[in-house]
Amino acid sequence: MECRDVREMADSFLGDELLTETNHEILRHLESCPVCRADLASRRELREGVRRAFQRAPDLSPSPEFVARLRSTLQSHVHQTPARRSLRSWGWWALAASVLLAAGLGVAYRGRDWIAATGAVARAAVGDHKNCALQFRLAEKPISLEDAAERYGAVYRVLQQLPPDDVATTAGPAHVLERHACVYAGRRFAHIVFEYRGQRVSLLVTDVTARGPLALPGQAVPSVTSAERIDDVPVASFRTSRQIVFVAGDIAQPDLVTLADAVAAPLSRALAGV
Amino acid sequence: MARQPTPAATDPAWAAFEAEALPHVDRLFRLAMWFERDRSEAEDLVQETMVQALQSFHRFQPGTNCRAWLTRILQNVRSNRRRAKGRSPLVDDPEDRIGLATPFVPPVAQELTDEDVLGALTRIPAQFQEVVVLCDVEELTYKEIADALAIPLGTVMSRLHRGRALLRAQIGASIAPAGRRQSRT
To answer: Which residues, in sequence order, are bridge partners of residue A248?
Structure first.
């Protein structure tokens, strides 16, 4: 590949828009071409400069009054929206309903709200599993649990050690491959990736205290519940006092529940102490 | 008189929308503000976009890029408004009028201020600004940009290529006089 070709494709390379083979050709060229390396670095700097400037410009930001007014306007439109839902959404409704039943919360008014909110969180957890553990294509780069503990609280510190790197279950061993904090669909998760039953399985922990409908009393003994599938991924779930924990992966549902059962009690006890 | 609490707070549709779409309001507004250059227009545009998004939220595919989906709605609203006001459509393509012979001036990003960068961005034609902002700031893929602007993928790529070349040239031009000023002191 010539310098001219690399310059032509440099921005697409930076945007991760090229075929893997083409990326490799460019990388091979860059190894031996300091001029193209400098050009690429300069293009990257410019892109980051534009993004930084745009996001920091004070005259582009919305006023708090507008944001409050917008929220109020949208809420007034809620009951005018059609209540159509696709068949795919039944998966997360099923999970949310089972979590609700396990928690013993039969109050119809709050329960209905909680189901919807839990459903959105469950879908975000599955999205995170797919896009982070399996395909590495998150918009925002994951950070270490240590950094997350500094910024967002001690829960992330607990999860540096728990569950342990090797978890023995009746379905076989689960070994931790990766621990970090990441964001998907606007929600932050502590994300622990296991190798289990020959697959990557995600354990995702997210805070639910900040959202009114989910701030319900936790259970003394966590009870693992499961749905068939959410967006084609089997999921099990349990509540701690301030978090909801999802275990998601493309393995048999009983094996998933077995892993969730194995980690639920110690994790719940440790998280209750922070 | 005290206002009645809104029933929306207990509505499942609102809870899902609140979790998925509302976190993007800040970035959506910045985009609208950049395009409109008028706070009142930007507020109207974002409000209409979010109302439309709420009303068609059942069509949003979970797990896909919600910001890209909202950006597509915003661009639709914007196009419709311009058409209603009798302004030229956004798809007007100025590429024939832009010369390819843009001089290459290597930018020295570490010396740039935010004002330098945004100033240079405002000096390139709007169609190029759009794709550069959607790609570099909003981090949409080429396909998502093509969907949002209702233009072919190839046009996105060529506009990005030329837009970035123009941006580098503008930045080079704005840095050069400053460099000369510094060298005289």
So the answer is: A202, A235
Q: Closest Cα to residue A118, out of A130, A131, A105?
A: A105
Specify whether A10 is located in the same domain as A94: no
B149 and B84 within one domain:
no
**What are the tokens at A229?**
């599938």
Q: Any CB–CB contact under 8 A between A55 and chain B?
A: yes
Token pair listed for A88: 């795919």
Contact by Cβ (8 Å): A196, A175: yes
ipTM of the complex, rounded to two decimals: 0.78
Domain that holds residue B173: 105-185
Q: What is the pLDDT of residues A124-165, one digit of tens each?
A: 888 888 888 776 666 677 888 988 888 888 899 999 989 999
Q: Which run of H or E residues covers position B132?
A: helix B126-132
Q: Which residues of B touch A83 (CB under 8 A)?
A: 13, 58
Please answer yes or no on whether A83 and B13 come within 8 Å at the CB atom. yes
Over residues A79-128, the pLDDT tens digits come to 655 444 433 444 444 455 444 444 433 333 233 344 345 577 788 888 88
B83 and B121: one domain?
no
Tell me the pLDDT tens digit for each residue of B46-102: 999 999 998 888 888 877 888 999 999 999 898 888 777 765 554 444 443 443 434
For residues B60-78, one letter each, b for 16 or more C-beta atoms within 10 angstroms of the residue's C-beta and e for the rest, the string is: bebbebbbbbbbbbbbbbb
CB-nearest partner of A127 from B54, B63, B141 = B63
Burial of A272 (0-12, 13-18, 19+ CB in 10 A): middle
A245 and A133 assigned to the same domain: yes
A52: nearest CA partner in chain B: B114
CB contacts of B107 in chain A (<8 Å) are 42, 45-46
Cβ within 8 Å, pair B109-A49: yes
Tokens of B49: 């976009």
How many cross-chain Cβ pairs, A to B, lie less than 8 Å apart?
Answer: 185
Residue whose pair of structure tokens reads 């941006």 in the numeric block: B167
